[in-house]
Design brief:
single chain; alpha/beta; Rossmann fold; N-(1-d-carboxylethyl)-l-norvaline Dehydrogenase, domain 2; eight-stranded mixed beta sheet; 9 helices; 45% helix; elongated
């Protein structure tokens, strides 16, 4: 059964999720953003109304999905008018009971993926982690989530926070390493594309073996000669600190079971 949805937020997650829900035959009724241009841009894409005033939020939707910055959510909830339906947030590190002072039916839909507005993703294979305030609400949220993905799991809030933490290491920190690598290459006039086959193979390897077994490089064997040469090439003290810290961590993990 399809649902009617209001999105509170028009950022990356809201953009991808609203389009995916629309494609799955749900109806997006309205998009809210404090920036009216952002609200209108997303609303036009999903054939919905839009507003930048919380007082104008519709009260007749089945589902209200809050997809905003974690630190903005408490203020938005405080200003949110009373509505029917179920309130859901999409955050990895926010407990579901943030909704408890406002209504009894609420929960979480947390898609474990990185989203950029201008890059399309397929929700069908994205793991989605849900939580709910009661058994009946869980059924509704689970049914809604399965319209997006075949991989829907129930995970309590504390575990979801650890999942989010691990995702920061695996995704955000890894991508920052690409940024630093790109800086080093740019300074020497070498295109970043040169590294893409290496990055692709590194990612593929961990689908076939553990990350620990896939680890290679001078830090594994603690090759001081190579590592000192690398440090000598780095002029930026921050990059030197990162190189030392990561090298020590790699070597420690490579040898702790020896």
């Amino acid at each position: 059964m399809s649902s009617t949805i209001v999105f509170i937020g028009a950022g990356n997650v809201a953009t991808h999720m609203s389009k995916a829900f629309l494609k799955a035959d749900n109806k997006v009724l309205q998009v809210y953003s404090r920036t009216i241009e952002h609200a209108q841009m997303l609303a036009d894409e999903v054939h919905a109304d839009f507003t930048n005033d919380l007082e104008n939020i519709r009260n007749d939707a089945d589902i209200y999905i809050f997809s905003v910055k974690d630190d903005a959510l408490p203020e938005i909830l405080h200003r949110m008018p009373k509505t029917g339906g179920i309130w859901i947030h999409t955050a990895g590190s926010v407990p579901q009971h943030i909704f408890a002072p406002y209504l009894t039916n609420y929960g979480v839909i947390y898609p474990l993926q990185t989203f950029s507005k201008n890059r399309s993703v397929s929700f069908s294979e994205i793991p989605i982690f849900i939580e709910a305030s009661n058994a009946e609400t869980r059924k509704i949220i689970e049914s809604l989530a399965t319209t997006l993905s075949s991989k829907v799991y129930y995970l309590v809030g504390e575990k979801r926070q650890y999942l989010h933490l691990s995702a920061v290491f695996a995704c955000n920190f890894a991508n920052h390493m690409y940024t630093l690598a790109a800086d080093i290459l740019e300074n020497e006039g070498i295109p970043f594309d040169i590294l893409k086959p290496l990055i692709t193979e590194t990612a593929k390897k961990i689908t076939e073996m553990s990350p620990r077994d896939a680890q290679t490089g001078p830090a594994v064997r603690f090759d001081k000669s190579v590592m000192e040469k690398h440090l000598g090439l780095l002029k930026d003290e921050e990059k030197k600190r990162i190189y030392r810290l990561l090298s020590e961590s790699i070597h420690k993990h490579a040898t702790q079971n020896d």
